[in-house]
Amino acid sequence: MLYNNVSLTAIGYELAPVVVTSTELEERLQPVYKKLGLPTGQLEMLTGIRERRYWNPKQAMWQPAAAAARKAIAKSNIQASDVQMLIYAGVCRDNLEPATACAVADSLGLNHKAVVFDISNACLGILSGIVEIANAIELNQIQAGLVVSCESARQIVDLTIDRITANPNMDAFRPAMATLTGGSGAVAVLLARSDSYPAGHKLQGGVIRSATEHHRLCRWGPDTGIPASAPMTMETDAAAVLENGVALGVETWNALKQETNWTDDLPHKVICHQVGAWHSDAVLKALSIPKEKDFTTFEYLGNVGTVSLPITAAIAEERGALDPGNTVAFLGIGSGLNCLMLALDW
Predict the structure, then answer these.
(1) Most CB atoms within 10 A, among 209, 210, 255, 267?
(2) Directed axis angle between helix 100-108 and helix 62-74, to 10°?
(3) Which of 256, 199, 73 is nearest to 148 (CA)?
(4) Catalytic residue (one of 92, 102, 123, 272)
């Protein structure tokens, strides 16, 4: 898919206020570590994650998402009344219904003609929302749209620690390891027609591929809203997700390069979904991307699901890692398995 008239205008984000280190989590897991003979410090050693952030208990998801949206709008020359589509794309949401997007739209005071809905696509939610809004812009159905998300890891991590502490064996611990990397945050991505709002980063296009035969490798549920009113579990076969996700990533990456006609020196920079050091290294190696082209935040934010990639892009821009004129690739691989990669002119 290619675009002629779509720009990523601005990204706004909210950092969750409570910093939780990997050391703190391992202190809570000491009875498990002792029984299984596991060395302290392995969580950070294996993942590269020193700390992550949590919202305060009972935090509604729509509130930080709306705050991030206001920041994105404030960075642009677009008014809230100009936004004609709003998509909430988080894994975490406030209720099964209505759409969490409704609360965000109400908080922003969007026009009653705006299209407002939720979508769900695991960690690819924001990228999928970008595609939905870009398609509507390219078809001249709307002039501008917002895709927002808020993710919360506090409850699922607490439940996971309680579960494996009550049943300390490797069969319980191994699939819970990835859950401990989870962090919290909120993000909003504002897109608009390039000819109406020329400021921004032009969206060249993207490619989507799936390998849904692997949909059982990472599961979180049941979904009753966040915080959940019923017990939730998350289990991940991290090794299988990595192996099959990287294979799918290679297929998608090759298709993206063909779609965009990139030469071997492009893109100048990449922003990947932030899982951890082992995932980042494996993906970059498989795609033959030099490590210096990458920018990471997992070390201090952990894996923030749908929020991870766009918040990393925003921080990279703030820190001067993305220069005007750079060609940038957003590389997303999520549970399902699904892979979505986008190309932008920064």
Answers:
(1) 267
(2) 40
(3) 73
(4) 123
**Tokens coding 321:** 């890692």
Q: Give the burial string for 20-44 (b: 16+ CB within 10 Å, else e).
A: bebeebbeebeebbeeeebeeeebb
Cβ–Cβ < 8 Å for 260, 342: no
From the list 14, 2, 336, 16, the residue with the least C-alpha distance to 187 is 14
Active site residue 213: no
pTM of the model: 0.95
Q: How far apart are the first and last CA of the chain?
A: 18
pLDDT tens for 243-302 read 989 999 999 999 999 999 999 899 999 999 999 888 899 999 999 999 999 999 999 999
* b/e 112-136 (16+ beta carbons within 10 angstroms → b): eebbbbbbebbbbbbbbbbbbbbeb
What backbone phi and psi angles, to 5 degrees, belong to 281?
-60, -40
Among this protein's residues, is 150 annotated catalytic? no
DSSP letter, residue 181: G
Of 225, 146, 155, 184, the C-alpha closest to 14 is 184
Peptide bond into 324 cis (omega under 30): no
User: In this model, does residue 224 exceed pLDDT 70?
Assistant: no
User: Exposed, middle or buried by CB within 10 Å (0-12, 13-18, 19+), for 104?
Assistant: buried
